[in-house]
Amino acid sequence: MSLGTYNKRKARAVAEHARKENWDAVLLSEIRSVNNGVEWLGGDEDLVVIIYSQRAGILLRGDLLRKWCEEGQMKKQSERSVSVKMDGTVLTATYQPVYTGNNEAEIEVAKDVLLEHTKWAKKEEILLVGGDFNAHVGGGEVRPGTCGQFGIRESNQQGRELLAWCEENNLAHVNSFYSHKNRGTWFNNSLKRWYEIDGFLMKKSQRHNNVKKVNTVGDLTLSDHKPKKIILVRKWRKYNRNERKKQVPRIKWVKLDDEVIASQYRRRVEDLLEEYDDAEDADITSWNKITDIVIKAAEEVCGREEKKIENPWMIGKDEEVQRMRDRLNRALERRNLLAVRQRENPNEDLDNEITESREEVKNSRKEIKRETRRWETEWWEKIIEDCKSAGERNDAGEVYRNLKKLGQRERKTAAVNTNLTKEDFKVHFQKVSEKRFENTLEEIDNILEEVEDIRHTEKARQWKDQLEETPSREEIIEQMNKMKDSAPGEDGVRLRYLLRGGPAILDEIVTMVQFMFNNSADKWESSLKVGLVIPLHKKGDKNNPNNFRGVVLLAMGSRILARVLANRLRIWSEELELLDDNQSGFRKGRSTADATQIMIRIQEDTEDLRICGSINRLCGKSWRGKVWERSV
């Protein structure tokens, strides 16, 4: 919010407005003050503070003010920028110079000072920069991650330079990612146009998770600028030392498809098993130790997956990027030194040197932009060529791996986030689990009374003995081979790690599964009783938990036992003819697609009967044969 000449009357008006709107903080710009200061206003309940410099200021109230005081009233004040830090958040208010045609040096110096304020925020702290940038950012800008597609008309030169500065310093122009009406914040009476020169900047990595809404507040009573309003969602990662979890590495498990890599992995697993055998407290039937063995062997042999970066075309270009950045830094340093010399010695003729230094800065930035675009184009062309060649070889796996590299880079609309927490999903899925039966327990009991009791038959007794028989090694391994290598549980163990680990690790798995079968769950290891619940969004509002479906990822040891039990129950129910003949789902040799096809045929036959009935009523018996001949 622009304030103008700073005085207590205006300060009280802003504080009263913030109280009415229930704003926690107000970032002030275009202040005209002689010096820096801190102003306290109001009483105990309505206490506010304004931390201001010569051209910018920040108003705090409520919980933010209390936390700022509790943490030592940390602040940073410069001529055109002011920053405060509290509760893991850094707020920065700024007022950037207006471009007058020959003050590029002043603008660059102000941006350098603002950059120092942004660096005050640590990696894990939330950064929000707001104020009057005197730069209009329009719509249709193509800078993924730095700005969105929304805006008024086209950007002016100052807007494009602001976006270039944001791109260099890993910042995002938040306004442009959100569509809202009446975007303009300042009206030019000469041109009769609205400009969006006020707004917010944030770290690129924080924009998705920490911003809920951005809009323009239609209030011109305190300033000739319309204020911008942003709602932040501060999400913290809670750490419980009593539930210390080991970070599972992201492993290139696809490499195990290579027989050479698989043999190396098998030998490494055998070596680690021998090391556990030699240990005094060795308990190799423990699932936790099996997990440690296969994860360690897979990580050593296959290696870790590289962390995905936003601009993959920059990989391997570190030296060239550093060279171009060094050139830009030298040009900026020379230009700033000349600007300082000109201010200190106004009579010295430095116009030509200053012009040359500005041109050098522009050329350096153009070189960075040109080379970056060239690398990006080459990267895209290589992806396209790899997909084309893989398609010619009918290698679908390679096609999908290349397409996976693309991600969602061309998505135009902003991501829709959910404000639901882990606890919200936990409570919701517990409620859903309580209502998992289609019928009440009384209805189920009534149904059972009407069903014939076959437990006393010889066939039922034989199958009861087979169900209770301890699964053999062959049965367990057979079911493991039939399982899909789907997403692992919380421990990160994939089925492929166990099948490729060799006979020794399979023997340990068999022993563990047999122990689980013969003992109640309270005797199992706790890691085998943990299920990782993944909420998958189906459709509709992402803030409504009913629009999510929970998928539980069991530990692989428990999953193997579940597979063995499911196979036995399937055979048992088929042999005793316990299932209805019309049930097709989850039955071997049957398919819901067959049932669907039958329903379609019945519907088509019904339609034919209706048509024939209509013809009989309209045309009579004499026309029946002719109509049939024509239809055929």
Question: Would you give an account of this structure?
Answer:
Helices cover 47% and strands 15% of the residues. By secondary structure, the chain is α+β, with helices and mostly antiparallel strands. The longest helix is centred in the middle third of the chain and has 42 residues, at 351-392.
Can you give keywords for this protein?
Deoxyribonuclease I, Chain A, 632 residues, disordered C terminus, 4 domains, 6-stranded mixed β-sheet, 5-stranded mixed β-sheet
The CATH superfamily of the largest domain turns out to be Endonuclease/exonuclease/phosphatase
Spatial arrangement of strands, main beta sheet? 6-7-8-9-13-10
Radius of gyration: 35 Å
Largest β sheet strand count, sense and barrel closure: 6 strands, mixed
Strand content: 5-15%
Per the CATH scheme, the topology name of the largest domain is Deoxyribonuclease I, Chain A
Structural class, judged by helices and strands?
alpha+beta
Please tell me the total number of domains.
4
Number of strands: 17
pLDDT averaged over residues = 81
Helix content: 40-55%
The span between the termini is: 78 Å
The CATH class of the largest domain is Alpha Beta
